[in-house]
């Protein structure tokens, strides 16, 4: 299966979320899960009298999450769970004058080098601590606590920008299905994402990856989204989009793995030097090839006994590969099938942006084809619904210094 990118230009507010049953609250989320797009595709097939082909058509198609962007040529990514920002001066550098942002950086490589060096017997004068290292005033460090930075970002050259879709809240009345009496009326709220953001001038797009066994399926998906729209309530003024293919340049996987390892080696060296001052004898270089596996959509993972787990175990040539480090969050996955109009069963999943680090005693070049295959397939259950979408060595992990 080959992958390509599709871009959706929003023409109406869009609803992407599931329905919280009984809550009277139609929530939305700020990305479009692959399952929502697949639902639209199935709906389109049905309306064209091709219901019997749905199963076969979706089998050759895997749709990833679509992320919000303001640049029609850029694929935005969710910040990994290890991205941190200054508590007092949050945000990317130079993007907010009033906040005097101290930048966002990533803590994964430092945390991994530290924990690996400790595992190898290293002792440090101070515990691993995350503090803001930016200048508050000349000669004085900020030293504020760092907290997790969430959301989506795009990068243009060396400049980073956070993407925050807006939100429209509408209250609607639903009448009782049995007695259309006024006292039976229920209020429910609909949350949606407007097609423009900021002061209402900037167009919002969603860009995502699609894997298909042939290009005809991608063409069909595009036609389907253009005809039936995306998300819920498409007949009531929501979800109209313009879908088209887009050329995206993401750093190739092999290069991401190499850059990840050379950055790790740098930090490793600095920390090893520090530990050496305390008398620890440590290897000057990381032993083996390291890589991170970052979730772009929630993943439903199970252990060999079929029990839900939050730990991702990979398989390389028949042998299990366990992560050496991870930063993960559990989440309950609900959802609503637009294809069938029914709620989906709830499952325990690992949240998007969670990240795992693995180490292997093989050179990077020999594991790259395997990693490419992993990215193509995704991990865990229900990958055909867009769950378990991954990115190997998320480029933001290289941002060790605030950007
Ligand atoms: Zn600071």
What features would you describe in this structure?
- It is a single chain.
- The chain has helices spanning about 35-45, 55-60, 110-120, 215-230, 255-275, 365-375, and strands spanning about 1-10, 20, 25, 60-70, 75-80, 85, 105, 135, 140, 145-150, 150-155, 160-165, 170-175, 185-190, 195, 200-205, 205-210, 240-245, 290-295, 300, 310, 315, 320, 325, 330-335, 335, 340-345, 345-350, 355-360, 390.
- The protein is an alpha+beta fold and about 400 residues long.
- It folds into two domains: about 1-75 and about 160-245, Alpha-Beta Plaits; about 100-150 and about 250-400, 2-Layer Sandwich (Alpha-Beta Plaits).
- The strands form eleven sheets. A four-stranded antiparallel sheet has the order 4-17-1-18.
- Helix 1 packs across helix 4 (about 215-230) and helix 5 (about 255-275) packs across helix 6 (about 365-375).
- The chain is globular and about 75 Å long.
- The two termini are about 35 Å apart.
The CATH C-level name of the largest domain is: Alpha Beta
Strand content: 25-35%
Number of strands: 30
**SS class:** alpha+beta
Query: Roughly how many Å is the radius of gyration?
Result: 23 Å
State the end-to-end distance.
36 Å
Domain count: the total is: 2
Summarize the biggest pleated sheet: 4 strands, antiparallel
Strand order of the largest sheet: 4-17-1-18
At the third CATH level, what is the topology name of the largest domain?
Alpha-Beta Plaits
How would you describe the shape?
Answer: globular
Average pLDDT works out at: 88
Hetero groups? zinc ion
Proportion of helical residues: 10-25%
Low-confidence region ranges = 18-25
Architecture (CATH level 2) name of the largest domain: 2-Layer Sandwich
How many helices?
6
